[in-house]
Amino acid sequence: MKDQILILPGDGIGPEITFEAVKIIKACQSAGLDVELGYGKVGGDAIDATGHPLPDETLDAARGARAILLGAVGGPKWDKLEDISRRPEKGLLGIRKALNLFGNLRPAILYPQLASASSLKPEIVAGLDIMIVRELTGGIYFGQPRGFSERDGGVRYGYNTYVYDEEEIRRIGRVAFEMARKRSKRVCSVDKANVLEVTMLWREVITELAKEYPDVELSHMYVDNAAMQLVRAPKQFDVIVTGNMFGDILSDEAAMLTGSIGMLPSASLNERGQGMFEPCHGSAPDIAGQNLANPLATILSVAMMLRYSFDQPALAARIEAAVGEVLDQGLRTADIAAPGDRQVSTREMGDAVLAAFQAG
Ligand code: NAD
Ligand code: IPM
Ligand code: MN
User: Fold this and answer.
1) For the chain, is the Cβ count within 10 Å smaller at the N or the C terminus?
2) Which CATH number fits domain 1-102+270-360: 3.40.50.720, 2.70.98.90, 3.40.50.80, 3.40.718.10?
């Protein structure tokens, strides 16, 4: 049976950006990628159709797929759902957990053409190439107990549990060290070991693991300092490894160094090379349905899919080169446009990347 790619467009700008990325997948099929495409519902889209953010049908299709391309989930329409298990975000979290997609790669790379779109001075971001390795199936996102309750006197409280065991820390640490070996051989582990026991253990386990990678230089940093260093001198970082919540926050911060959150792709992988690929950004309700969203993070996520789930580095590089080519042509969606640039729509950007890919 052919490998399957499951497309989950989701909510907000999700359908618009996945539409552009699917064009590139189809062009890859024409270039010899032997896969079948299927579609499913997730998030608010699935709630509207079935009452549940992750219907069994979608989960079964996800389990059977080699790779999943997800647009984005969530939006104001579903924000009033107080039952967390029925919110759109639960659809995304449910797939990550069910498929054990613990290794989340979020590369923050500055395309040189976008140096002026970054909120930092060009000399601070020129040549930026950071890989954030975020643990994705544990930590405070999934720890038990969690919930809402009430104390005597009717005072309400909410609580979550930040927990990691050493096996979870070791397996994400390995992803980071292996990644560093293919890059500049530096890992910075980000924690809050001055306050939280769970990250004291994190630091200890990562330090033990480093002995197996003597060729990789390990440093540690508290998360508050890391947030500051990312905007002070981001090029000091090569690979950053961190837990689920810190990684979520730092990757949005790093995205802005590259010009826009609309530029940051991601891969979420399990131990079998099965993966979900999605832009790091959300459903952008403020611009949804207006043909304004930047589709490049999603298109670059397809490149990550080809590299990590299909072992097709040449096709992946061709997609990345096509993105570089359209940026060279001066095409910019609104989020990355500077005065004098040619501002284009989501659709025009997708078409231009497709044309550059086909010519490449
Ligand atoms: P967001 O990332 O959706 O938007 C933040 C800002 O960035 C907005 O101004 C938006 O217009 C802009 N933006 C985001 N993507 C863009 C793109 N491709 N092109 C141009 N501009 C872009 O974050 P938010 O507003 O905090 O969240 C909105 C909804 O998305 C929430 O329901 C949230 O839970 C959800 N969300 C989903 C994912 C996901 O599906 N992976 C990720 C983050 C947030
Ligand atoms: C992301 C998103 C998700 C996360 C939300 C929507 C559950 O912000 O993929 O970065 O927090 O992981
Ligand atoms: Mn996020």
Assistant:
1) N
2) 3.40.718.10
The pairing of beta strand 275-277 with beta strand 267-269: antiparallel
**Closest among 107, 44, 113 to 254, alpha carbons compared:** 107
Whether CATH 3.40.718.10 fits 108-258 = yes
CA 150 distance to own-chain centroid: 36
69 Cα: distance to centroid of ligand 2 (angstroms)? 15
- Report the DSSP pairing between strands 186-191 and 217-222: parallel
pLDDT tens-digit series, residues 261-296: 999 999 999 999 999 999 999 999 999 999 999 999
1-102+270-360 and 108-258 share one CATH topology?
yes
pTM over 0.95, yes/no: yes
Q: Is 294 annotated as a binding residue?
A: yes
Q: Distance from first CA to last CA of the chain, Å, rounded? A: 30
Identify the active-site residue in 48, 60, 224, 311. Answer: 224
Give the Å distance between the CA of 151 and the centre of ligand 3.
32
CB under 5 Å of ion ligand 3: residues: 248
Residue minimizing CA distance to atom 16 of ligand 1: 262
ipTM reported for the complex, 2 dp: 0.98
Instruction: Report CA(248)–ligand 2 centroid distance (Å).
Output: 7
User: Does the annotation count 141 as an active-site position?
Assistant: yes
Segments making up each domain of the chain, as ranges: 1-102+270-360, 108-258
Backbone angles phi, psi at 237, to 5 degrees: -95, 145
